[in-house]
Amino acid sequence: MHLVLRPDAGRKDGPANGQVNPSFNVINRDTRPIAAIFVSPVVRQGRDWGPNRLAAGFAMEPVVSVHIYPPSGECRYDVQVVYAGGQAAERRGTDTCRVSFVNFH
Q: For the segment 41-62, what is each residue's pLDDT rounded down to a tens digit?
């Protein structure tokens, strides 16, 4: 199953305007549902993850993927998921202009 949730407003991407495309899929390969997904540019100081990329009340079940649309212009992102039980997992420094999928096990 593939879902597209909460794309960023005003997103510009693709070769038409010369911007790189940092969009990617988060795939839940764990047995636990994911309750939240956070994406932050690597260059951002501190640990302000920004808003949850999943819709309120939505739990991303195992084997589900969600397409994420970060703003154009950056390629390196830290990605954090929070499982339904409250445990978190991170993938830091992911070059989303080079990879299409970020897996969480």
A: 997 666 688 899 999 889 999 9
Domains of the chain from N-terminus onward: 2-104 (2.60.40)
Q: Which of 22, 24, 7 shows the shortest CA–CA distance to 72?
A: 22
Between 2 and 61, the higher pLDDT residue: 61
Three-class secondary structure of residue 51 per DSSP: coil
Q: How far is residue 71's CA from residue 55's CA, in Å, rounded to a whole number?
A: 18
Beta strand spans in the chain (E): 2-4, 24-28, 34-41, 65-68, 76-83, 88-95, 101-104
